[in-house]
Amino acid sequence: MIKRFLPNTFIVAALAMLFPFAGTADVPLPVINEPEGEDVECVEPEDDMTRNHMNYILHQRDETMHRGIRTSRHSFAECIDCHVQPDEQGNIASIDSNEHFCRTCHEYSAVTIDCFDCHADRPQEFIEREKPADHPPVSLQQQVHQLLSATEPTAGDSK
Amino acid sequence: MSDAVNHSRRSFLEKTAAVGAITIAPGIMLHQVASAKPDDQPVTDAVRWGMLINTNKCEDGCTDCVDACNAEHGLVGNNRPETDTQYIRKVTLREKQTGHELSLPLMCQHCETAPCVDVCPTGASFKRKDGIALVDKHICIGCRYCMMACPFKARSFVHEQVRNQTLSAPRGKGTVESCTMCVHRVDKAQVPACVEACTQGEHHAFIFGDLNDPNSEISQELAKHGGKQIRADLKLNTGVRYQGI
Questions:
Q1: Average pLDDT of B66-81?
Q2: Which of A58, A127, B208, B214 is the most buried (most CB within 10 A)?
Q3: Distance of CA B58 to CAs B63, B69, B70, B106, B203, Å?
Q4: Cα-flanking dihedrals φ and ψ of residue B21, to 5°?
Q5: Residue A62, by phi and psi: left (phi above 0), alpha (psi -120 to 50) or beta?
């Protein structure tokens, strides 16, 4: 056991001597934009939120989904509304950018979040949504109708 | 949770009910359904939401309800009709003998004994106490058993990554989805988007309301003129009923 363990320890020690600051230099600290305004306070104390936000939103998730409770205190949408806001230049970070409020910390702590696979990552007024009217989902029946009407002989063809 | 009576809330409710009565008096109640549930209260089985669709008033070729649904839930097509999500489909039926055609919107029928709920291995398909059948996408594993079990072909699977979702309709790749009876609107005492669009378009084919309340418009209409369930032989007690089929 010790024999197997020792060589690894040497390698780690050697690497640590070679790159003394490797651990800190490679991972930039998260950039957290505080919500603007003097009286703005989070729904729970900041240290509590840092540690327990996932429990609050998980609890609220089940309450809303299954029981229809729609209070705003621990609502995910409220988090986004307050924490994801445009900067001074008017740019707002989407979840694809590592400046997004959630992503910046989650990337630092290497914790994957899948909330935004389904949920909106920005307040609604900042989402440029592709209008469904431009690309409506087409049903098979509609497509068959379209194909049939396209292949029907027109008046000009019948001579 | 405390069961103690909250007197300030009770007085608020009484006042709200009084205001509601005044609003109802002129008979203009387009966006509101009678009972507004307080945000902090869970839904109960005292109500059962349902829809009644009069196919005689549903025009062939009109897609007001479908368009409103697509806009409400941010449903965008990828030009792949076999797999694109549809919450409502317009279906045209033709009787061979007479040639009589009728057009109707078909969506999740919100069955009381829903086959999708029966077959779901994770409990993601579930019924809310007020009768609305939903998919909890947080625990849906995308197995699609519910899609196979549904006799109405009401459910769709999200095959592709979704971005820019609407606030009230989170949806993403790898999960199954279907008509939610606009649960986010119903909880705010609004009617579903399809019903609103049909009413605004002056078609009035939809009636939305509480099937448990004998005085609601939908129950009165059902009592007076009746309404059929699609595939009534399956004894699913659907929440969506049709007239004229």
A1: 91
A2: B208
A3: 9, 16, 18, 12, 7
A4: -65, -40
A5: alpha
CB of B53 within 8 Å of a chain A CB? The answer is: no
**Are the C-beta atoms of A132 and B71 separated by less than 8 Å?**
yes
A123: nearest Cα among A91, A87, A88, A83: A83
State percent of chain B over pLDDT 70: 86
pTM over 0.80: no
**Per-domain residue ranges of chain B:** 32-243
pLDDT band of B25, cuts 50, 70, 90:
very low
CA dihedral of residues B12, B217, B243, B55 (deg, nearest 10):
-70
Q: Chain B: nearest CA to A109, how far in angstroms? A: 23
Under CATH, which number does the domain B32-243 receive?
3.30.70.20
pLDDT at A17: 56
User: In the prediction, which pLDDT does A5 show?
Assistant: 52
Which pLDDT does position B24 carry in this prediction? 44
pLDDT for residue B19 is more than 80:
no
The encoded tokens of residue B28 equal 């203009």
Helix axes B64-73, B193-200, angle to 10 degrees: 140
Q: Is B235 in the A-facing interface, judged by CB distances under 8 Å?
A: no
pLDDT of B7: 54
- CA–CA gap between residue B60 and residue B157 (Å, rounded): 27
Tokens of B173: 């790749």
What DSSP character marks residue B190? B
Write the Ramachandran bin of B61: left for phi over 0, alpha for psi from -120 to 50, otherwise beta: left
B37 touches chain A (CB under 8 A): yes
**Pick from A63, A65, A117: CB nearest B136:** A65
A121: closest CA of chain B, how far (Å) = 8
Binning pLDDT at 50, 70 and 90, where does residue B183 land? very high
Provide the residue type at A70 as one letter: R
Which tokens sit at A91? Answer: 């740019």
| CB contact B178 to A (< 8 Å) | no
